[in-house]
Specification:
alpha/beta, single chain, two-stranded antiparallel ribbon, globular
Length: about 150
């Protein structure tokens, strides 16, 4: 079964790491809660497809913009889900033996798959209170970044 790590900070190395080296920071799927000036938090998922790295790059840019003295001064609290770190480290969309992370959200026809149970744990944590919005940042099938929204907001 996939395990979820939950933390309240991101190491500074996150701002410069390549997606293939993400396991140097997060050795498994990780949910990060960062406090900001406003609530409710924004939920952002990245690296649901391991080789779609634009979400990581976007988050690196955003967090760099709001970093000062080793702290992030965010205008809104966020939940950041760093998803398929194993596939990212291998340069793969997903591993052959796992359900696609973007096909494991509530309503999946495979609710008992390890990835679906992991996503259910993420959903339970982030929806314990209201969310502002939810964003899934990743590449599309072309070379341009795409922004997709999952309907998991309250």
């Amino acid at each position: 079964m996939k395990k979820l790590t939950i933390v309240n900070e991101i190491p500074e190395k996150f701002l410069e790491i390549n997606y293939r080296d993400i396991k140097e920071i997060f050795d498994r799927p990780t949910l990060v809660h960062l406090k900001g000036d406003k609530e409710p938090p924004l939920f952002i998922s990245i690296l649901l497809h391991g080789n779609e790295f634009s979400g990581l790059q976007i988050m690196q840019e955003i967090l760099t913009k709001y970093q000062e003295d080793g702290y992030y001064h965010l205008p809104r609290s966020i939940w950041l889900f760093v998803g398929n770190v194993e596939a990212a480290s291998l340069g793969l969309r997903r591993q052959d033996d796992e359900l696609d992370f973007n096909r494991a959200w509530p309503g999946t026809p495979h609710p008992d798959a390890p990835t679906s149970r992991l996503i259910a744990e993420v959903m339970e944590k982030i929806t314990g209170n209201a969310l502002f919005a939810a964003l899934d940042l990743h590449n599309n099938t072309g070379t341009n970044p795409a922004l997709r929204m999952h309907l998991c907001c309250q």
